[in-house]
Amino acid sequence: MTTSLATKPVSLPENTLPLVLALVTGLDYFDNSIFSFFVSYIAGGINASPDELVWSSSCYAVGAVLGVVQQQWWIDRLGNRYYISGCMLLYGVGAVACAFCETSFQLTLARGFQGYFIGPMMGACRILIQDNFGSQQRAGAIRLFLASIVVSSALAPLVGGFLVSHLDWRALFVYTAPFAAAFAALAAFSVPASAEGASGRTRKCAFCSLPGFCFCSGRAANCHAARTI
After folding, report:
1. Where residue 193 falls among pLDDT bands split at 50, 70, 90?
2. Are the C-beta atoms of 117 and 90 separated by less than 8 Å?
3. Are the beta carbons of 16 and 140 closer than 8 angstroms?
4. Contacts of 218 (CB under 8 A, 6+ apart)
5. What is the DSSP secondary structure assignment for residue 120, as one 8-state letter?
6. d(CA 190, CA 96)
7. CATH fold of 15-228
8. Backbone φ, ψ for residue 62 (5° rounding)
9. Which residues are CB-neighbours of 74 under 8 A, at least 6 positions away?
10. 31 with 157: CB under 8 angstroms?
11. Predicted confidence (pLDDT) per residue in 131-184, tens digit
12. Residue 170, helix vs strand vs coil
């Protein structure tokens, strides 16, 4: 008598999903806050003026908006699980790249790379909360989601101050890389993999990315010109 064992992917308990989504979103806000608070330290580390780092912030914003525009296109092909896990891993790679930057131009490219992968995370996690929880469970998930935003934004200056006091500016970026890898692993075992895609919606997302990217690039250039004139 033979028995067939169906292979089932390893997954974490369902009640860990809100926590994982909150952690991913919190990392996004932590990154933005710590960069804003310690931009002068970062500028001094690469021998650039704080005004030169406007390009880094602008490129980060452009990358984030482009990532949001193309988000559904990726989810339709990879699914939510691999999309969020992959974004976390690549964001961590971008954090390490930022730590090794020597010029403002290099930092601009690295921050744009980071923005593309972590910028869409708040929207993606919010949609997952809306789609995967009933009305009663959703309230608790949203409270945890919002709490992560507040707590991570508050922790950023405290953690950043400790890092620049005991290490240097590069630690501001390296510090987030292990957390990104850990959150990617958690997402791989807790985020549902299914994604409902429609060819018409996918085609629209793919073709709308270029105009959105051009528009945001123009806005970033205008903001930078206004700052420098």
Report:
1. confident
2. yes
3. no
4. none
5. T
6. 26
7. Growth Hormone; Chain: A; (1.20.1250)
8. -65, -45
9. 83
10. no
11. 877 777 878 888 888 898 999 989 988 998 898 888 888 888 999 999 999 999
12. coil
- Token pair of 64, please? 């984030």
Which two structure tokens, joined as six digits, stand for 11? Answer: 């997954």
Banded pLDDT at 93 (limits 50, 70, 90): very high
pTM recorded for the entire structure: 0.78
Q: How many CA atoms lie within 13 A of 193 on its CB side?
A: 7
**In sequence order, what are the residues at sequence separation of 6 or more whose Cβ sits closer than 8 angstroms to the Cβ of residue 7?**
none
The pLDDT of residue 16: 81
- Give the Å distances, CA to CA, from 140 to 18, 25, 124, 135, 190: 8, 16, 18, 9, 17
H-state helical runs in the chain: 17-37, 39-45, 54-99, 104-118, 121-132, 135-166, 171-174, 176-190, 199-228
Say yes or no to pLDDT of 213 above 80: no
* Residue 32 dihedral angles phi and psi, to the nearest 5°: -60, -45
- How far CA 155 is from CA of 20, 100, 162, in Å, comes to 18, 24, 11
Joined tokens for residue 87? 């974004």
Q: How far apart are CA 54 and CA 220, in angstroms?
A: 9
State yes or no: pLDDT of 8 exceeds 90.
Answer: no
What are the structure tokens assigned to 91, written together? Answer: 């964001």
